[in-house]
Amino acid sequence: MRKFLNFRIIDVKGYWEARKLMAKTQFSYRANKHVVKEGVRRGIDDTRSLIVTLKSTLLSIAIAAITVGALVAVDHLAAPKLENWGWKFPSDADYITFLAAVAGMGGVFIGLYYAALTSVGSAIYAKVPNNIRVLLARERSGSVYMRFLSTLTVLCVMLIALRLVGLSKILVAIPLIAVLAGMGVIAFVRLGKTAFNFFPLPCLTIYLKISIRRFQL
């Protein structure tokens, strides 16, 4: 009886092992809980950013969809007359290859344009204040051209998709896409010259003054 009264649980080795195991379990639980919470938070933030980005594409997609609808309506009326004038429908392979080539050209030009802006910004304007670099990225003619090129690319992808699901080839779309693609190539050359004109810092002064005044109004 006396030995039992003098017994203390802290003197038992298993007690400390159990305490150690409990502490380890609690730490693991809290760490995993923190990781899960951070993962969920990052997932929510990423989803919100994606939604905002996708919303900014709705205008280009809507313009491309309206253009496709207009082309279908015009082609229904004009295709018989064009065939009488000697126009011929291309094969499926030629039709899809042509549209895919224009869509690929649009993707390449978009990548090259932003690569050029990045090169200018990193090589010449690395020490320039961030507000001025933002003005460069928002250069008006370049922004308009990017919207035009992205809309043209989406238009070609939509025409390919409609053909793949069974819609008839749109004859009037071929010359229209060809003209728009040619305009895109010529405009890209012009924008390339504009980007290279940004390399000498004095050449940028007029553009910056106009842009800053526009933002102040």
Concise summary:
This protein is mainly alpha-helical.
Tally of contiguous helical segments: 8
| Strand tally | 0
Q: What's the helical proportion of residues? A: over 70%
| Distance separating the two termini | 93 Å
- Taken as a percent bin, the fraction of beta residues is under 5%
Poorly predicted residue ranges: 1-6
What spatial form do the alpha-carbon principal axes imply?
elongated
Secondary-structure element order, as H and E? HHHHHHHH
**Mean pLDDT across every amino acid position:** 77
Number of structurally distinct domains: 2
Class based on secondary structure composition and strand pairing: mainly alpha
CA radius of gyration is 31 Å
Biggest sheet character: none
Keywords: Membrane, Transmembrane, Transmembrane helix
Transmembrane segments: 58-78, 98-124, 144-164, 170-189
Task: Tell me what the structure shows.
The chain is mostly helical. The protein folds into two domains: 1-56; 57-216, no CATH class. It has helices at residues 2-5, 13-55, 58-84, 92-123, 130-137, 140-164, 173-197, 205-216. Helix 3 (58-84) packs across helix 6. The protein is elongated, with a radius of gyration of 31 Å. Mean pLDDT is 77; it is low at 1-6.
Question: Which terms summarize this structure?
Answer:
mainly alpha; disordered N terminus; 81% helix; transmembrane helix; 217 residues; single chain; 2 domains; elongated
Indicate the topology.
Layout: H1 2-5, H2 13-55, H3 58-84, H4 92-123, H5 130-137, H6 140-164, H7 173-197, H8 205-216
Helix pairs in contact: 3-6, 4-6, 4-7, 6-7
Transmembrane segments: 58-78, 98-124, 144-164, 170-189
Keywords: Membrane, Transmembrane, Transmembrane helix
